Amino acid sequence: MIVVERRASASRGAEFLAYVIALAAGFAVSALLILASGAHVVEAFAVLYEGAFGNGEALLQSLVEATPLMFTGLATVIAFRARVWSIGQEGQMFAGAMAGYWASLYLVGVPSVIALPAIIGAAILGGGLLAAFSGWLKARFDVNEIISTVMLNYVAVYFLSYLLAGGPWTEAGATSYNQTPVLAANFDLPILIDGSKLHIGFLLALIAAALCHVLITRTPLGFELRALGFNPTALRYKGANIGKTIVVVMFISGGLAALAGVSQIFGVDHRLRGDVLTGIGYTGIIVGMIAALTPLGAVIAAFFFGALANGSLYMSVLSDIPASLVPAMQGILLLFFLCASVLVRVRLRWRTATDE
Question: Quick count: other Cβ atoms within 10 Å of Cβ 273?
C-alpha cells in the first residue's frame, strides 16, 4: 500500500526542483488558456518576458512591484515560523497605510528628514497594534488567530472605504476613485535611481529581510519564536511566557505588513487609495510560504511575483490576450507554487505487510 509521509526536512535542491516544475506546469496550463482565447502563445510569453526583464526600465519597475510583496512576505515568515497562522497581512497593511496617512496630516510643512521617519513609525505602530490585538486574543482567550485576523481584515478595509467614500479623507471633487488628495512632495519616499520609480522602500525591504534573518537566528526572541513553532510545550516548561511571545511576534509581523502600505502609498501612488493595496497582503502569504519561511527566500519569491505582475500588465496591453486572462494566469501560477511548497514536504512510500 502506498502511504504519504511528512518529511522531517526538505533539501534546498528538492525545493528548487519542485518550484521549477511548478513554474513549467503553471506556464503550460497558461499556454492552454492562451490558445483557447485565440492568441499566439509564443508572442504572449515573449511580451511577458519583455515587460518583466526586457530592459533596465522594466527590471526596475519589477523591483518596484516586488517591494510591498517583500514586506508582506516577511510578515508571513515571522508569524508562520512561530506557527501563529496570521492571515491578517492585508488588514495590517491597510492599517499601516491609514496610520501613516493620518500622521502626515499633522506633519504638513515639516522637513522630510523628520516627517518620513515619523510616518513610517506611525504606520508600524498602526499595523503592529492591529496584529498584536489578534495575538492578545489568542494568548488571553485562545481565540483562533485565523478567524480573528481574517475578520480584522474586513474591519480595516471597510473602515478605509468609509474614510474615502465621502468620508473625512475624500478628495474634494473626486468622481472616478475613492482617494485622498495628492500628498505634499516632502512626504514622497526618495527615489533611488533617477528616471525610475524605484524608491527607498526597496532598500528598506532588503534591510528588513536582513534584520529578520538576524532576529530569527541570532536573538533570544528568535529562539523563542522558533521554539514556539517547533515545540511550544517544551518552551513553556523552560519558563518562557508563551502569551507574551505570541503578542510580540504578531506586533513585528503586523509592523512589517504595514510597511508595505507605506511603500506603496508614499513611494508609488502619492495618495491613499484602497484599490491599489488590494491583494498585496494575501499574495504576501503565498510569497512567504514559497520562500520556505526564510527571509532571503521571501525576497527572491517577491521579486518573481513582482516581475510577473509587471510583465502581465505589459502583456495585457501589447498582446491579444483578453484582460481577464491575466489574473487567471497569475492565479494558476500561485496555485502550482503553493502545491509545490506542500508536496516537497511529503513523500510517497510503499508500506508492506511486514511494516504493519
Answer: 18
- 153 with 267: CB under 8 angstroms? no
pLDDT digit string (tens) for 193-207?
A: 999 999 999 999 999
Q: Which of 233, 90, 99 is nearest to 153 (CA)?
A: 90
CA distance 48 to 102: 38
Residue 355 above 60 pLDDT?
no
- 271's grid cell: 495618495
Cell of 14: 528538492
Q: How many CB atoms lie within 10 A of CB 261?
A: 32
pLDDT at position 356:
55
Q: What is the pTM of this model?
A: 0.92
